[in-house]
UniProtKB/TrEMBL annotation:
One Pfam short name: HNOB
Descriptive protein name: Heme NO-binding domain-containing protein
Native organism: Rhizobium oryziradicis
Gene3D superfamilies recorded: H-NOX domain
Residue ranges occupied by any Heme NO-binding domain in the UniProt entry: 2-160
GO MF term list: heme binding
Amino acid sequence: MKGVVFTEFLAFVSESWDEDMADDIVEASSLASGGAYTSVGTYDHREIICLLEALSVRVTLSKEALMQQFGFYLAGRFSVFFPQFFTRCGTLFAFLASIDDYIHVEVKKLYPDAELPSFDVLDSDEAQMSMRYRSSRKMEALAEGLIYGAAHHFGRTINVVAKDGGDGSVIFVINETHS
Ligand code: HEM
């Protein structure tokens, strides 16, 4: 997985806890990379699972909850790095539909060795959208956090339900809620 995800993960840990926590989990994880990530490098995606495990023990939150929190944070960072992906879409649902058709296509041009998930729209109307996430890396908790983070960017309040889609896929049912 591209280094930008790892550098942002360690930034997320430093901001949410502190730099010592980031150093500590790197040290505890005996990573092949040594944790010296650069944003354009490519690293084994399982390193993030090791880092999450080490963080989970220290902060007594589940790996899934932490991955989701990181996804929320990452969406905010992507909106700073790649504002054009957000501004070209008028609505949250149009943005989510553009991940597979446009955003990750552009990401692949930028980083040819990126391993991206598929994220297909199954159904969509004004209030609800269903999408199927499929990836051998099984990062659905990251995907869910990214969806919530994107909603936050568009100023929408949503509720996401994740269901087993069979064949190892996950179906997200995203509802806009009005407060
Ligand atoms: C501007 C928006 C976005 C950009 C620039 C972007 C870019 C990226 C990049 C660079 C990776 C790493 C892939 C690799 O290194 O192999 C990635 C992975 C991923 N992206 Fe996106 N992404 C964006 C939005 C989203 C959103 C909103 C979702 C929500 C579903 C999403 C779902 C994922 C997931 C789950 C992964 C982890 C890899 C996997 O599941 O197989 N992305 N994305």
